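A quick word before the example. In earlier lectures we treated sequence and structure as two separate objects. From today on, think of them as two lines of the same record. Here is Acetate kinase written that way.
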Amino acid sequence: MKILVLNAGSSSLKCQYFIDEESIASVTIERIREKESYTVLTYANEQREHTSTIKDHYEAFETLFSLLKESHIITDVTELNAVGHRVVHGGPYFSRPTLINTEVIEQIRSLIPLAPLHNPSNLEGIEVIAKAYPALKQVAVFDTAFHQTMPEYAARYPLPYDLYEEAHVRRYGFHGTSHAYVAKEAAKMLQQPLETLNLITLHLGNGASAAAIKGGRSIDTSMGMTPLEGLMMGSRSGDIDPAIIPYLVQTQEMDVEAVDAMLNKKSGLKGVCGNNDMRKIIEKINGGDDKSQLALEMYVYRIKKYIGAYATSLGHVDAIIFTGGIGEHADLIRKMVCKGMKQTFGMILDKEKNRSVSGEKSAIHNPESRIDLLVIPTNEELEIARQTKEVISRLS
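And the structure line, produced from the sequence above:
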């Protein structure tokens, strides 16, 4: 099956082309609407780069399909079986990948207030394809869908009930495609059915989230109504006392918009030590920088708190999975997260295995560890392709 996976951002367009779940080519177009847009095509282990002026997403899609045809990756758009779209927020409406039609488009549009930075761009990609190629099947895969299995007591906030009914205020969770993918890969590594496993998945990148997965179903996750809740992140605060917001408004001459921008763009690692690149933070720690050391300790401490909470929720834990840019590459973070966990959880890291992780799926626990510790590179595009394939196959 030939599937094109698309992730449309406000000024970017990323795609991967899959044939029977094998990635054949990828295209990234950045700086859309700017004087010099940047395009890179990766195909057959080679990269082609060029700059041009791409005025909008319509032109970006024209560029994308022209590149695919000129490079003989496809001969015509009609040979595609489907296009799978990443859509950030599915709100209360979508708990699974969904074939896109007019009703679905309008439901995604109605959710823009819940994801004003992402859903408009995702929607624009869908509408451009629908207008240019109306016969081409499109599937929406929602970041929030995987977490819609959370029980009500985990999904709801202790706020007036009518806020849920009237404004859809509840916890939705994000990074669902990544959590779903690594959970399935963990089951393969452990050679056990996913339905029998209790997992804690840690997606650690500039954005970070944890999930408690029981029998393949998310029962809790750290992000909430928005991606701001939960773990400390690159530039997002994660969990804070909500009373801090009115306090800053009243005492620091900040309006709500300024506080919101601070919490999302100027907090987290960046807020504490001035840097949100974990590699540079570790370099500065080695040079004796106290703020970087504090930021790292805060970051790890909050991950450990969520592991403890989710271990309680799950009852027992079969494996903890590290993924995302930091989870996959920062052996120091994995070491610090696992430190001191032997007595409480029977978790024992193998230091040499942890140091030697090389971008492949790896087990990093000591044979005596009661919990398996796994590093699994995420592949959200492949998961979107798989979910798109499932939807299209049901139509046949």
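Notice the following. The chain has a mean pLDDT of 95. We will return to this example when we discuss secondary structure assignment.
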